[in-house]
Amino acid sequence: MFVFEIILLGLRNLRLHMLRSILTALGIILGVTAVITMVSIGEGSKQQALEQIERLGARNVIVRSIKPPETQTAGGGRQQSWASKYGLTRDDLDVLRANFEPTGCTIVPLKAVGGQVLRADRRQTSQAYGVTPALKDLAGLRVARGRYLTQDDLDARAMVAVVGAELARALFPDVDPLGSTFRIDDKVVRVVGVLAPVGLSGGAGGALVGRDLNFDVHIPFTTAQTVFGDLVIRGSSGSRDITEVQVHEIYIESPTRGRVPVDAARLARLIETRHPEMDDVSMIVPFELLENARKSAMTWNLVLGAVAGISLLVGGIGIMNIMLASVTERTREIGIRRAIGATRRHIVSQFLVETGVLSVIGGLIGIALGVGLSIGVETIVPILPDLPGVGSLFEAGLNLPTAVTGWSIALSFSIATATGLVFGIYPAIVAARQDPIVALRHD
What we know:
Blueprint: H1 2-16, H2 18-57, E1 60-65, E2 84-85, H3 90-100, E3 106-113, E4 116-119, E5 122-125, E6 128-131, H4 135-138, E7 143-146, H5 151-156, E8 160-163, H6 165-171, E9 181-184, E10 187-195, H7 204-209, E11 217-220, H8 221-228, E12 231-236, E13 239-244, E14 249-253, H9 260-274, E15 281-284, H10 286-329, H11 331-339, H12 344-380, H13 406-432, H14 436-440
Parallel strand pairs: 2-13, 6-11, 8-10
Antiparallel strand pairs: 1-14, 1-15, 3-6, 3-14, 4-5, 4-9, 7-10, 8-11, 9-10, 12-13
Helix pairs in contact: 1-12, 2-10, 2-12, 2-13, 10-13, 12-13
């Protein structure tokens, strides 16, 4: 009964000074809103980056042929050769298969072929690769139409191709790509499948691969070896780049995520043995990038939470200032209550109820505003480039993903309530220590 009366009295006092109560709770409201919104933006960006890396395959390790730096002659000029030969070899591929496939790993080689992809007067710089059927599952590719490459295609060295979504749109704007033909340099291939759009273009995964996967052409690896050979001639603006690379990339997929660090270390030792200088081969371990991204995201969330937490601290200080002013204003009331029998505990309880109610209500309003703002940001940001007048200030395709997390709501509400109570204790103690006689004489 006593607790109920104290709560009613506290609520009545807050209602009598409604504007002051709202302004007092404003710091808590803005603090909770800031915590939820900032954490949701950070969490949304983190999840987007992690999804992009995971699409590349968190269990994959990529070994890639890279062109070594050109050597310099004694006179300072570049040393020229008819063809630049570097990178992974078929012997490297055989060694990796012998060492990793018996342990349950999947090995998928990629071989770059051709200088141009052409159909009629349409042409693109070649992104054609000889691959094996296992690449589809390993890289998480989806076929929108037709089929992917099969083992029969490899055995027959078939002149067939699976093309990326954007390349199909660029080469075949007016006809059905399935069953149509196009050329890789002077070799004619037939389209048997079109890949679904891959959302790695321009994202973290696209940066790892180093190209837009939507413009890829996949042909059987055996066809790439026997029909196209190892020389790749690419030219533009009167210059030619001639390279000789037997295997452009090798994907190694570990059977479990826990095996990735072990397999990556084994792979590094093997590659270092066969390429001691490591100037024409590089390794990418998406799993390590995934873990680093998670750690960075956690650090970023802590920073955002700390910055937003300052708002809660300021809100708590605001509560303390207002309640101290309220103690002075209500000194005579406190004296009357003490004179008719209220104890110090009663006075402390009354002030703590008022600060607690302010904090709880402010926290609830802040949660509603924070969740609403987070949803609004994700909805409004993509349409900013289309707005008249200001649309040119924003990049096309702009988006700001958000993800409201339960822990941010619980944490911000708990901190808001605790802040209000902690900063309300001192004014409550000051009020309870008032001498009843002195308080009654206060004007």
